[in-house]
User: What shape does this take?
Amino acid sequence: MSILKKEGVGRFKHLISIDELTKEDIIYILRLAEKFEPIAKGKKVNKSLEGKILANLFFEPSTRTRMSFEAAMKRLGGDVINMTAQEVSSVAKGETLADTIRVVGNYADIIVLRHPLVGAAKFAAENSIVPVVNAGDGAGQHPTQTLLDLYTMMKEAKLEGSKIALMGDLKYSRTVHSLIKALALFNTTIYLISPPMLRLSEEFIEGLDTKTSKVFEVSLEEVIDEIDVLYVTRIQKERFPDEEEYRKVAGSYVITLDLLRNTKESMIIMHPLPRVNEIATDVDKTRHARYFEQAFYGVPIRMAILSELLDGNG
Ligand code: NCD
Assistant: This one.
């Protein structure tokens, strides 16, 4: 039995939105991930999910999320089944998401779902007999990415009380939509930096819990010398209503060595990846770059999530 369930938190049956988690839940998962790190690196063995099966249902492209879930499950002794490309699965015959979810729940103990529609994961959870994890629902949320982002900040910089710039496509990035809500719980100063067309909506900003955190829209130049974390996202080309709109903003921001001249030594740069051209590759060699470490942290974080949802004993 997981600690979260034992203490009656009880909401952690599925993981659909970061809003479901309290600050205490988040800290608990980050601590659990820390315990899993040596197993994620293959330095210790733990087979607590032996006999369990995870089904990956990805209706959108993915490299890191799908593979790190697979690595996490296998490192813990579990197994993974994958839906084949939509074109060759029953989805191509017109099967509904509800039916696919009902059927796959008979083959697996947990479903990891990525889907282009906002709300798809919630809908799937309502139709599922096994736990569902949201691995991205359109421009909605990406809660497991948020947990690994917070973990990266905790390990490589600091989380509580830090100054974080979220830069890029704030309108369509689901990673930002989840992350900003969680950051608001950690007494942070959040700077929003984006081309005017890609701003986070007023509604979203107004809906944020700003009891302990502050949110400002700024330019990078105004804050580059004071931030602890620069979190960059790619322009989410696939979410644009038309190609013409995308072309208006494509390539409109690039982090170069030159822009980093006045940063704090300890400032870290994060990116959920994939990168297109938002960060020049010569930035990779600097002490600031942490996006590849960030991608690794997806494994211990997803181990912690799987272990919780499947009642592994850690
Ligand atoms: C992100 C996503 O799918 O939202 N990728 C990821 O999971 N690391 C970010 C992106 O695609 O830009």
